[in-house]
Design goal:
Blueprint (H helix, E strand, L loop, with lengths): L2 H17 L6 E6 L2 E7 L2 H4 L6 H9 L4 H4 L2 E5 L5 H10 L3 E4 L9 H6 L3 E4 L3 H13 L1 H8 L9
Parallel strand pairs: 3-4, 4-5
Antiparallel strand pairs: 1-2, 1-3
Length: about 150
C-alpha cells in the first residue's frame, strides 16, 4: 500500500463513523507499509469520552513495543486535538498525515515543536465531511471538540 491507499483507508473510517451516526473522523496507524490499526470517532456510538478517531486506531492496533510506534505513521482525516496529540507524543509516533485543518486546527504546532513531522493535505472529501457535519450537528460537534472557538472559518 502507498500513502494514498492509507489515506483512503482513513477516509473510509470517517465515512463509517458518519454512517453509524457519529462524527466523521477516521484514522489508521501504519507500520512499514501495513495498517496496524483502524479507527473512527466512536464517542456517540459507544458513549465514550475518549474514542476519537486516532485513539480508536491506537486501541485497535493493540499493545505494541515502543520501537514499533517510533516507526509508524498516523493518518487522520482531521487535525489532531490536544488529547490525540498527547497520545502521538506519548508513544513517539514520528509522522502524522492530516486530511484537513481548515474546519479545526488542532495541536499541529505542538507536535512539530516536539519533532513530529506533520503533513497536511487539505483533502476536499475530508473538508466536505466535516463542513456538512458541523452544519448539521453543531451541538454534537461542540460537545466533541469543545465550544468551537478553535474552528477556522474559510
Amino acid at each position: 500500500m502507498d500513502m494514498d491507499e492509507f489515506f483512503r483507508a482513513a477516509v473510509e473510517e470517517a465515512e463509517r463513523g458518519l454512517a453509524e451516526g457519529g462524527i466523521p473522523i477516521g484514522s489508521v496507524l501504519v507500520h512499514h507499509g501495513h495498517i496496524l490499526g483502524r479507527g473512527h470517532n466512536r464517542r456517540v456510538q459507544r458513549g465514550s469520552v475518549v474514542l476519537h478517531g486516532e485513539m480508536d486506531a491506537l486501541e485497535n492496533a493493540g499493545r505494541r513495543s515502543a520501537q514499533v510506534y517510533r516507526e509508524c505513521t498516523l493518518y487522520t482525516t482531521l487535525s489532531p486535538c490536544a488529547m490525540c496529540s498527547g497520545a502521538i507524543l506519548l508513544y513517539g509516533i514520528p509522522r502524522v498525515v492530516v486530511g484537513e485543518n481548515r474546519t479545526f486546527l488542532g495541536e499541529e504546532d505542538l507536535l512539530r515543536s516536539r519533532g513530529v513531522t506533520v503533513e497536511v493535505v487539505q483533502d476536499a472529501r475530508c473538508q466536505e465531511l466535516m463542513t456538512h457535519f458541523i452544519q448539521a450537528q453543531p451541538t454534537l460537534w461542540a460537545e466533541d471538540i469543545g465550544d468551537g472557538d478553535d474552528r477556522i472559518d474559510r
